[in-house]
Every structure is written in C-alpha cells, then in structure tokens.
Amino acid sequence: MEQERIRTKDPNKYMNPYLAGVLLGFVLIAAFYFSGRGPGASGGPKRVTAAIVEAVAPTHAHQSEFYGKYVNGPHSPLKDWLNFELLGVLVGGFISGALAGRLNLKVEHSPKITSRKRLFWALIGGILFEYGATMARGCTSGAALSGIAVLATGGFVTMLAIFGGAYLFAYFFRKLWI
Amino acid sequence: MGPLVPQGIIGPEWDFIIALVIGMGFGFILEAAGFSSSKNLVGLFYGYDFVVLRVFFTAAATAAAGIVLFDYFGWIDVEMLYVQPTYWGAAIAGGMIMGLGFVTGGFCPGTGFAASSIGKIDAMMFVLGTFLGALLYGETYPLLKDFVNSGYEGGIKIYDTLGISRGLFTFLLIVVAVGMFYLVPLIEKRVKKPEY
Fold first, then answer.
1. Whether the predicted interface score ipTM is above 0.90
2. How many other β-carbons are positioned within 10 Å of the β-carbon of residue A129?
3. CA R_g for chain B
C-alpha cells in the first residue's frame, strides 16, 4: 500500500510554467532554424478538410476559390509540414500524459453543468475557433506564437484580438466554467 | 547558416521528419504544462489561473530573443523565415471569433489536439469542431473574400509598425512579460479556483 502510494504520481502536478515556456521557446527556435517556419495547429484541420471535400465533391473543391488553393497544387493537401507536425503533437502529448499518469478517457467539466452541455459547447468552440483562425491565417500557435517569434505585426494583432475577444465574451459563458 | 531546409543544407525529404519531431516537442510541452485541461486554460479569462500567460509569454520572449540572437551571430537568415502576413481586418475579426471559441470550447486547436491525445473527450469534440469550422469557412468564403483580403500589408514587423528598433522592442517584450509575471499572482490570490 505504502509502496503503491509512492509510485502513484499526482496527475495534477504540472511542469513549472516558466520552464515549460523556455522549452517551448526552444522548440519554436528549432522549428525556424531547421524548417524556416513555426508550428501551427489550425492549418492541419483546414488541409484535411480540403482533402475530404475533394474526395466527396471533387468538382466543388477544384472550382472553389478556397479549397482550390489546397487541392489544385502539385501535392495533396495531406502532404504538408503542418499535418506531420500535428501528428507529432498527438504523439508528444500522449507521451507526456503517459509519463504523468494522466491518460484517462473522460469528459472534463464543471460540476455545475452536464457532460452533454460541455460537449455541445466544445463542438461550438471548435467550429468558431477554426473559423476565426482560418480567417486570421493562423491560431494561437501559428499566428500568435509563431508570429511573435519572428516579431510579425500580424502575430501581435491576432494575439491581442484572441485574448481581448476572450475577455470580452468570458462573462457571458462564465457558468460553463466557474 | 539556418534555416537549414530552405537553404538546402538539409534535404527536403527531412522536412516532414523534422515537422514530426517539432510537433512531438510542442505536444509534450503543452500537455506537461497543463494545457490538456480546459480548466487550466480558461483560468486566464476568469482570473484564477494564469498558467497560459506565463507559458505563452515566456515562450514568445524566448523565441523572439533567440531568433534575434541567432541573426546577430549570423546563424540564421531572418529574411528566409516565414512571417505571418498582416491583414488588419481579418486578424482582428478572426481573433475575436477565436476568443469566443476559446471561452465556449475551452481549448485552442493546438491544446485541443494535445488534450485529445490523453483521452479528453471534450477536446475530441473540440477537434471535430475544427474540421466543421474549416468546412463552414470554405462554404462561406465567397461572402468573406473581400473583407478577409482587405488591409493587407504583407510580412510587416512590429518594431517597424511602432517605429522603434528591433533590439529595443525585444527588450520591451521581455520587460512587459516579466512585469506581468509579477502582477498576475496578485489577481490569482483574490480569485477562488473552482474545484473539479
């Protein structure tokens, strides 16, 4: 029993945020040093969606001004740096979760709301986030973090708009969280 | 001198392997920092947990200062790096929509993928939403086209926009980040963290 208690890790114990930040900064520098670009997370779903639309409705995809940018190129939109990088995010996240004892199939939600409500708003949030990210040419990763790394004006503007927007709307959705 | 793949120093066949390794590092750190839980992420917007601010600004300042130093030592050609293009209208409107997505969904795309990898079903729903969001964008693009391509200024840099030197801006970025790190515990102390 005693031994088990020692072995069991506290799943709420996270890495020091400043250490995590410095390491994340090194990952960004490495991405720019090797590939000349930073990581992103909204470009992957965008390209995969374009590929799905092409498979389901090829004429529609090829004629669309939006999907056309991805499906009319020399390579499949699936064969892209961002997709391989996102695959890595899944692997890296899984390794960290496994080491920390956080692998657990569950819906995390405030006790004041039901799982179903949490899942509904998670879906809506995903739709909105990707919609905004596609509009702004990147999300918190690709536009804000990678943009700020190279001191792009667009990176700072997008970052301020994301966090500013979130603070503006936070009050109306407080019951989902607190 | 970097960037190694665009310069042809490393063959392009390595680029996807590099992408995978970079992604692994990215995902590992996001998960390890607690970004695989939306409770930790939205704490930023309700004032009970500023872990996002700490990690984000430490990473941004480290990367920005690191790339400036790499350039100073001649290790990287900054002209060859991909720079987020600036479209004023789309950046502001898209950013605000992302903010709404953040407080409703509790994740951003990167953290949603990282949280899905450890089994968070709420994150998997968020990720499903990202594909639907891309589809919705693709289908409504003709209506948005003019707006989202307006205010285009290309890969402009923040220090030029503000009219100061790159070195001074980088220094100020670090000062502002450290200043915020000192201030946020004052807010955290006053706001009760929800238990779940």
1. yes
2. 33
3. 19
